[in-house]
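Researcher: I need the complex structure. Ligand is nicotinamide-adenine-dinucleotide. Inputs:
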Amino acid sequence: MTADGKIGVGILGGGGILGAHMTGFAKTTDRCAVVVVAEANPGRDEAIRGLLGPDIRIVRDYHEVLARPDVEAVDIILPHHLHLPATVAAARAGKHVLVEKVMARNVWECDQMIAACEAAGVTLTVCHDRRYHGEWMALKAIVDSGVLGDIFFWKLDHNQNVVMPAASWAHWRDGIGGGCIMSCLTHQIDGLRWYGGEFERVTCMTCVRPERMEGEFLGVVTGTLKSGALAELSINWWTRSNQGDNRLWYEMVQVCGTRGEAYRMDGRGTFIRLHDGADPAALARYGQAALSGFVKVECGAWGGHERCIAEWIKMLRHEPAQIITSGRECRGTVEVAEAAYRSAETGKTIQLPIKPRRWKASGMPAALAGIVGARDLSYHVDTGAKR
Ligand SMILES: NC(=O)c1ccc[n+]([C@@H]2O[C@H](COP(=O)([O-])OP(=O)(O)OC[C@H]3O[C@@H](n4cnc5c(N)ncnc54)[C@H](O)[C@@H]3O)[C@@H](O)[C@H]2O)c1
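Model: Output:
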């Protein structure tokens, strides 16, 4: 707690995603204060000050943050291989933890994180931002209303051109936790688990081009859910199809049921189409137009990070809060991605649950593995704009 009664927050890592997290902290300044940022690379200081103000305290070693009595909770936005050690250290220091997706590199690491936080009596929350996003939430409301009937198909895509130089932690399997599936298809896996329930089995194929990144830059996952629905998920970290004129999409979720279908697509919003007029309440709600085409539904205008952080702060203040991404809940998302890797390795369909295995290092350069100091570790997402 800070001197003026606010939740004192320390942020571990001051890289690219800090800006999205600040959309949340900037809107909760009446209840929390970011008192310090740990960032190993001084080259990031200017950007951090640009986001948090010129007086923000910046330290190089995150253990300094954990030693501060005015820090009650930490927001961990470090490379994936550091999520486990930073969470365990934070828990042992008695700090509540918010950790960015992906929770960790495998379920074994998730279990260590959960155990450390439970032993210390602190909360562990994962910032799976899609679950808090207005448009994703609108699709959840459609699905939960039952208006689509018996749901039998899901399709989820993630498309962007992510460039991973070898100097970046994210280039390496050890840093990112595999490749694009663990890093970002986990957005889609997590969204699907939230919408449609748990997976029963998973099959996966991947594509690797070592000059691009060590792990896969393309992945296709198919699976069945316990509900019986079939799911098709894909990630493409080469495509520019999400940019420019006549673009396709960055992310898309489609769901089909016996009485209708719905989708959410970046840049468009969330839509529903009814296949029959048998449900008068649905017709009254969405109108006759929903029988002949897709109609747009109303969505909250907030971003996922913004709302996740606002809810997290409420939870820490013991106010009513809608936190739906605890460590225990989100472990299952990592489990599906890990099962997908086991499928790609063996050529077999993998039944869930899987048995946790310790992370097997594959050779990320040692300089990237620990505290890194004055180095630029960054990768970049190509937005189509000139760099
Ligand atoms: N939700 C989303 O859409 C989204 C998008 C991008 C990234 N992310 C997630 O955010 C997290 C961070 O990713 P990013 O894109 O900001 O990566 P990044 O490489 O831009 O930032 C990571 C930062 O951590 C710093 N760092 C590394 N080791 C450190 C240490 N020991 N102590 C202190 N600082 C250290 C690096 O110098 C770097 O600035 C990851 O979990 C990633 O998956 C989420």
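Model: Summary of the prediction. The chain has a mean pLDDT of 95.
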